[in-house]
Amino acid sequence: MTLPDYVHARVIFTGDAAHLLPIFGVRGANTAFQDAQSLGWHLAFVIKGLAGHELLANYSTERVGAAREIIEEAGKSTRFMTPPSEGFRLLRDAVLSLSLSEPFVRPLYHWRTSRPHEYTDSALNSPGDDNALFAKGPAHGAPPQNIRLAADDFLLDHLGGGFDLLYFTDAPALPDPLQAVVGAARSRGVPLRVIAVGAAQSVTGADLTLEDANGHFRQRYGVQASGAAYLLRPDQHVCARWLTLDATRLQAALHTALPQ
To answer: Domain range for residue 77?
Structure first.
């Protein structure tokens, strides 16, 4: 069960107060943590005046959608384990029998009850980016794919706390117009870090440079050339990605992600 709306004037619902979910995949506790992570940054940005109350409505829309996805998937698992009718029982038994010899049948009983929810239709996703042109990599609303950078060092270790711009480049410095947009966002209080990916040396204008000598990072993210970029929200979901990023497109994406 889920409330249809988690925001009612100055009262905001989260966790078990907002929804009651089946136990499959430990989704109840995990979903409450995800609620808290989402609400934390949405509420903080509104309180700090970095976005309008419309941002809280987005929290509700996204998290209600996540709860309903879990409920739908859990319903499939329940009907498979305890068929409610003879027809469901025949289907279940046929799937189990065929799965012993036919690989194509196995996904029918292997629902990913622990997969992360993707905010595919979020209002915070940039409508003017290159999301549809990418052949691979995390799409709109998806969490980032973790990358092993070195022994005991992973991409996710370096993300979080604000917006992260992953900028793929071999150049020694970020373009000046991009630096200007980043500086302007920071000057009004938006936490925005720039992580340059690919260069062998520190990139001027970036807060962190991650070398990608073998191209593994770029391959996983579907990047073919310098100038591509991903923008991650504070909860580490992708809200924009570009094959080629310029200052105007970055400014537009930040405006979409922080509605006034």
So the answer is: 7-109
Tokens found for residue 163: 């917006």
Tell me how far apart the alpha carbons of residues 206 and 172 are, in angstroms, rounded to a whole number. 10
Q: What is the DSSP string of 160-189?
A: -SSEEEEEE--SSB--HHHHHHHHHHHHTT
In angstroms, rounded to a whole number, what is the distance separating the alpha carbons of residues 13 and 11? Answer: 7
**Antiparallel, parallel or unpaired: β 208-211 and 192-198:** parallel
Provide the whole-model pTM: 0.89
Q: Render pLDDT for 29-81 as a digit per residue (tens, 0 to 9).
A: 888 999 999 999 999 999 999 999 999 999 999 999 999 988 888 888 888 88
Measured in degrees and rounded to the nearest 5, phi and psi for residue 82 equal -130, 80
Taking the CA atoms of 32, 6, 77 and 83 in sequence, report the sign of the dihedral they define.
Answer: positive
Residue 43 lies in a domain: yes
Q: Report the SS3 class of residue 141.
A: coil
88 and 51: one domain?
yes
Count of domains for the chain? 2
pLDDT in tens, 198-239: 988 999 999 999 999 889 999 999 999 899 999 999 999 999
Residue 115: which region, alpha, beta or left (left: phi > 0; alpha: psi -120 to 50)?
beta
